[in-house]
Automatic annotation (TrEMBL):
Residues 4-173 form the Thiamine phosphate synthase/TenI domain. Signal peptide: none annotated. This is Thiamine phosphate synthase. It holds the Pfam family TMP-TENI. It comes from Dokdonia ponticola. InterPro entries: Aldolase_TIM, ThiamineP_synth_sf, ThiamineP_synth_TenI. It comes from the Bacteria.
Length: 199
């Protein structure tokens, strides 16, 4: 599983590139635009070919998009799922009952291992030094002892993908490793190859 996080700021060529990434096999796109309004989110999705909605997870900001677009589901960043407190299970169920997927983020493997709410998959970061955030140092998490589906985030590139698999991650999540590349589609394809050939 390779998932791709959107850049926070939308470029003029992003939608065009995104379509090419879907055509290249991208099946997990995390739509994360923290500064964008609901209207901007809708305008973005209106430009995406509806056949690809099934691959899109929206982040914290506008979960109500699930009422307007048949997207895959929602993602809860750590502060969002923590803010739910005892209501987290009910909140997640309100989406899963409608057949939306729900995923969540963590920064400590102990918190992920202890999570009692059932999520489709979990993101853990930072595994390696981040490409898109120069001040984020990697922690080299080894998750082979945690019996959950975990995707590693932070510093994920074609070079680090095999290392992440060796640490027990069943998936990887990229941002800078794809979007900052000279050719994002080619970078994604190379990451796919590295992921599929990793042991």
């Amino acid at each position: 599983m390779i998932l791709l996080i959107s850049p926070e700021q939308t470029s003029a060529t992003e939608i065009q590139t995104l379509h090419k990434l879907f055509e290249a096999g991208l099946e997990h796109f995390h739509f994360r635009k923290p500064e964008a309004t609901l209207e901007a989110h809708c305008a973005y999705l209106d430009q995406v070919d509806p056949q690809y909605y099934q691959y899109i997870m929206t982040h914290n900001f506008h979960h109500e998009l699930t009422a307007e677009f048949p997207i895959k589901g929602i993602h809860l960043e750590e502060r969002k799922w923590r803010a739910q407190g005892d209501e987290l299970g009910a909140y997640v169920k309100s989406f899963t009952d409608k057949e939306f997927a729900v995923s969540s983020s963590y920064h400590e493997p102990e918190d992920l291992a202890a999570q009692s709410v059932d999520f489709a998959y979990h993101l853990l970061s930072p595994v390696f030094a981040a490409i898109s955030k120069s001040d984020m140092q990697g922690r080299g998490f080894d998750v082979r002892h945690i019996p959950k589906f975990i995707a590693g985030m932070g510093g994920i590139s074609v070079e680090t993908t095999p290392e992440a698999i060796k640490l027990g991650f069943q998936g990887v999540g990229a941002l800078g490793g794809v979007w900052n590349a000279e050719n994002p589609v080619q970078a994604f394809k190379e990451m796919q190859t590295a992921f599929l050939s990793a042991e």
